Structure formats: C-alpha cells, structure tokens
Amino acid sequence: MKKFVKKQVKKTKTIKLPVFFKSLSLKSKQKAKKHAPWYVYMVRCANKTFYTGISNDVKKRVKAHNTGTGARYTRANGPVKLIYTEKHPDKSTAMKREHEIKTFSKKRKRALLKK
Fold first, then answer.
1. Mean pLDDT, contiguous 10-residue spans, the chain (115 residues)
2. Per-residue pLDDT at 59
C-alpha cells in the first residue's frame, strides 16, 4: 500500500502525494524536466509547405497545431502531418538544429526526409 504525505499548496489547498515525491524538491523536479530529451520536428501543412519546430512532447505539439492552438503559421495553413523528428539531449541543441533546418532550401529539406 502506498503511503501518502499531506502537502500544503498556496495556503488554501492540501493535496496528497505519494511518499516518494516528498524527497523531490520542486527544483529537482524542474531539473529532471530540463534533462528530458527535446525534439526537432517537421510537419507538412495542407498547402504542402514545411513547418519546423521544437518540443519535448511532439505528439502533444502536433495535436496543438491541428486544433489551432499551435503556431500562427500552422493555424492558417493546417491541418498538419508529422513527417520528421530528431532527438536532442537538451533544448539548446534542439533550438540550434531547428535554426539550421529552417535555413535549408526546400530541396535540402526533402533530402533530409529521405535519410
């Protein structure tokens, strides 16, 4: 049986968390999230153009693009279909790679998709 610890949140709510959360401070939870992998992804819009972005949860991000809560470009040119992903160890390297891919010509992006 799991043991629970009461923890006060914003002085008005008390929530029950499993005991193993007691040992994790908020900062260590945030650090764990920072070390999660990031992805560079490419989607094809309805008008056959490519959109490149980064996310730590690609499925959720593509869903956001398709529901109209993603980037402005994909709202205007949706729906989108996921066509490419690349895994990176952190957000910084993913952002650098995203910028690099965005500078590619359409021909070079197609070549990247064939790899």
1. 58 58 54 78 95 96 93 91 96 96 95 90
2. 95
Residue 46 lies in domain: 38-114
For CA atoms 82, 84, 90, 92, the dihedral sign is negative
Q: Give this prediction's pTM.
A: 0.69
Quick one: residue 52, left, alpha or beta (phi over 0 = left, psi -120 to 50 = alpha)? beta
The domain that holds 97 is classified in CATH as 3.40.1440.10
Per residue, the 3-state secondary structure of 69-103, as one string, reads CCCHHHHHHCCCEEEEEEEECCHHHHHHHHHHHHC
